[in-house]
Amino acid sequence: MHYPESSFEDRMSTVDFRVGERAHIEVDSDICRSCTTKACVTACPANLFVPTGDGGILFNYEQCFECGTCYLLCDKEGAITWTYPDGGDGVAFRKG
Ligand code: SF4
Ligand code: SF4
Predict the structure, then answer these.
(1) How many domains does the chain have?
(2) Is 1 within the bounds of a domain?
(3) What CATH number does the domain containing 69 carry?
Protein backbone atom coordinates (compact mmCIF):
# COMPACT_ATOMS: atom_id res chain seq x y z
CA MET A 1 0.00 0.00 0.00
CA HIS A 2 1.26 3.46 -0.81
CA TYR A 3 0.96 6.32 1.62
CA PRO A 4 1.35 9.81 0.17
CA GLU A 5 4.08 12.05 1.54
CA SER A 6 2.75 14.38 4.15
CA SER A 7 4.27 17.40 5.73
CA PHE A 8 5.10 17.58 9.39
CA GLU A 9 2.25 20.05 9.87
CA ASP A 10 -0.19 17.61 8.26
CA ARG A 11 0.96 14.93 10.60
CA MET A 12 0.75 17.20 13.61
CA SER A 13 -2.89 17.82 12.84
CA THR A 14 -3.62 14.11 13.05
CA VAL A 15 -1.97 13.55 16.37
CA ASP A 16 -3.56 13.75 19.77
CA PHE A 17 -1.50 13.88 22.90
CA ARG A 18 -2.62 12.60 26.21
CA VAL A 19 -0.01 14.01 28.48
CA GLY A 20 1.08 11.75 31.27
CA GLU A 21 1.98 13.24 34.60
CA ARG A 22 5.23 11.35 34.63
CA ALA A 23 7.88 12.33 32.09
CA HIS A 24 8.56 9.27 29.92
CA ILE A 25 11.79 10.78 28.69
CA GLU A 26 14.18 12.51 31.00
CA VAL A 27 17.21 14.45 29.91
CA ASP A 28 20.13 14.99 32.25
CA SER A 29 21.17 18.52 31.53
CA ASP A 30 24.43 18.09 33.45
CA ILE A 31 25.53 15.44 30.96
CA CYS A 32 24.34 17.54 28.02
CA ARG A 33 26.62 20.38 29.09
CA SER A 34 29.61 18.38 27.91
CA CYS A 35 27.97 17.47 24.59
CA THR A 36 29.44 19.30 21.61
CA THR A 37 27.00 18.17 18.92
CA LYS A 38 23.65 18.87 20.59
CA ALA A 39 22.31 16.62 17.84
CA CYS A 40 18.96 16.27 19.55
CA VAL A 41 18.19 19.97 19.15
CA THR A 42 17.90 19.81 15.37
CA ALA A 43 16.89 16.16 15.11
CA CYS A 44 13.78 16.20 17.25
CA PRO A 45 10.82 16.73 14.91
CA ALA A 46 8.85 18.37 17.67
CA ASN A 47 11.66 20.74 18.75
CA LEU A 48 11.49 19.63 22.34
CA PHE A 49 15.18 20.09 23.14
CA VAL A 50 16.03 23.69 23.89
CA PRO A 51 19.62 24.73 24.57
CA THR A 52 20.01 26.74 27.73
CA GLY A 53 22.41 29.57 28.38
CA ASP A 54 24.61 27.40 30.60
CA GLY A 55 25.21 24.84 27.85
CA GLY A 56 22.60 22.39 29.05
CA ILE A 57 19.30 21.30 27.63
CA LEU A 58 15.79 22.12 28.66
CA PHE A 59 13.54 19.26 27.63
CA ASN A 60 9.76 19.30 27.39
CA TYR A 61 8.32 15.82 27.10
CA GLU A 62 4.71 16.80 26.66
CA GLN A 63 4.55 16.77 22.86
CA CYS A 64 6.90 13.93 22.20
CA PHE A 65 6.03 11.68 19.26
CA GLU A 66 7.94 8.77 20.73
CA CYS A 67 9.81 8.53 17.45
CA GLY A 68 13.02 7.50 19.21
CA THR A 69 15.29 9.74 17.10
CA CYS A 70 16.83 11.53 20.05
CA TYR A 71 17.60 8.28 21.80
CA LEU A 72 19.26 6.85 18.70
CA LEU A 73 21.32 9.95 18.01
CA CYS A 74 22.50 10.78 21.46
CA ASP A 75 25.84 9.17 22.15
CA LYS A 76 26.28 10.34 25.73
CA GLU A 77 25.61 7.52 28.12
CA GLY A 78 22.84 8.41 30.53
CA ALA A 79 21.88 11.74 28.97
CA ILE A 80 18.49 10.45 27.84
CA THR A 81 16.48 8.07 29.96
CA TRP A 82 13.64 6.54 28.00
CA THR A 83 10.64 4.65 29.26
CA TYR A 84 7.29 4.13 27.61
CA PRO A 85 4.51 6.44 28.78
CA ASP A 86 2.13 5.10 31.36
CA GLY A 87 -0.73 3.07 29.88
CA GLY A 88 -3.04 5.21 27.77
CA ASP A 89 -0.78 8.25 27.81
CA GLY A 90 1.38 9.50 25.02
CA VAL A 91 0.88 9.78 21.32
CA ALA A 92 -2.25 8.51 19.60
CA PHE A 93 -2.85 8.64 15.88
CA ARG A 94 -6.38 9.51 14.88
CA LYS A 95 -8.01 7.51 12.16
CA GLY A 96 -9.37 9.44 9.20
S1 SF4 B 1 20.49 14.74 24.80
FE2 SF4 B 1 22.35 13.80 24.00
S3 SF4 B 1 22.64 14.77 21.97
FE4 SF4 B 1 21.23 16.04 23.13
S5 SF4 B 1 22.53 17.59 24.11
FE6 SF4 B 1 22.21 15.92 25.58
S7 SF4 B 1 23.99 14.61 25.31
FE8 SF4 B 1 23.86 15.90 23.47
S1 SF4 C 1 11.36 10.65 20.82
FE2 SF4 C 1 11.28 11.92 18.95
S3 SF4 C 1 9.73 13.49 19.38
FE4 SF4 C 1 10.28 12.55 21.33
S5 SF4 C 1 11.85 13.89 22.14
FE6 SF4 C 1 12.89 12.24 21.02
S7 SF4 C 1 13.22 13.02 18.94
FE8 SF4 C 1 11.70 14.34 19.96
Answers:
(1) 1
(2) no
(3) 3.30.70.20
Mean pLDDT, range 5-14, rounded to an integer: 70
Per-residue pLDDT band at 25 (split at 50, 70, 90)? confident
**Domain range spanning residue 21?**
8-93
In the reported structure, the alpha carbon of residue 2 is separated from the centroid of ligand 2 by a whole-number distance in angstroms of 25
CA 34, CA 75: separation in Å to the nearest integer? Answer: 11
Residue nearest ligand 2's atom 2 by CA: 67
Alpha-carbon distance 73 to 13, whole Å?
26
Q: What's the pLDDT band for 14 if we cut at 50, 70, 90?
A: confident
Mapped onto helix, strand or coil, the DSSP state of residue 81 is strand
Distance from residue 55's CA to the centre of ligand 1 (Å): 11
What average pLDDT score do residues 69-81 get? 94
Cβ of 64 closer than 6 Å to ligand 2, yes or no, is yes
